[in-house]
Amino acid sequence: MSHMGAWAHIREDRTLYREGWLAQGLWALAIHRLSAGRFARRRGVVRSLWGVAAKLAGKWAEFACGISLPETATIGRRLRIEHFGGIVVHGSTVIGDDCVLRQNVTLGNRSEARPLEAPILGNRVQIGAGAVVLGAVRIGDGAIIGANAVVLSDVPAGAIAVGNPARIIERASV
């Protein structure tokens, strides 16, 4: 995340959502941004209380929005969650700037034996509805993951990945 504060990020994120403050994706992202800010504080009572509030708010976002966006995930600027519902992001996931997630997307680990391995998305990555990206895979800048694709290996920058298991069908210019 850049050096911008949480509120500056939220204001910037809001410009991407046609529904404005009514967009449930924005609610979940705002909760993430405010919750992740606690890691900048040294350990203590304030950080602990902030942590409890963050966990409760995160659970509310899961229930009300259908979006699990843990505070430990690293999220770049201007993430757009196009349609709410069924979105699960692993706590070790890294999402670059200007990315788009659509409904029913899973960004997760692949094995209980390696619980911290999670996807790394570059900048300007688009993930289609129902797509699943599992394990320590890297999705290059400008890549597009098609709807319902199951990605288990790296996708190069500018590529389009579709199918189960995902395969590269075309290379777009970045």
TrEMBL record:
CDD domains: LbH_SAT. The lineage of its organism: Bacteria, Pseudomonadati, Pseudomonadota, Alphaproteobacteria, Sphingomonadales. Keywords: Acyltransferase, Repeat, Transferase. This is Serine acetyltransferase. One of its GO terms (biological process) is cysteine biosynthetic process from serine. The keyword Iron-sulfur does not apply. It comes from the Bacteria. Belongs to the transferase hexapeptide repeat family. InterPro entries: Hexapep, Hexapep_transf_CS, LbH_SAT, Ser_O-AcTrfase, Trimer_LpxA-like_sf. One of its GO terms (cellular component) is cytoplasm. Pfam families: Hexapep (PF00132). It catalyses: L-serine + acetyl-CoA = O-acetyl-L-serine + CoA. Its EC number is 2.3.1.30. GO terms for molecular function: serine O-acetyltransferase activity. It comes from Sphingomonas zeae.
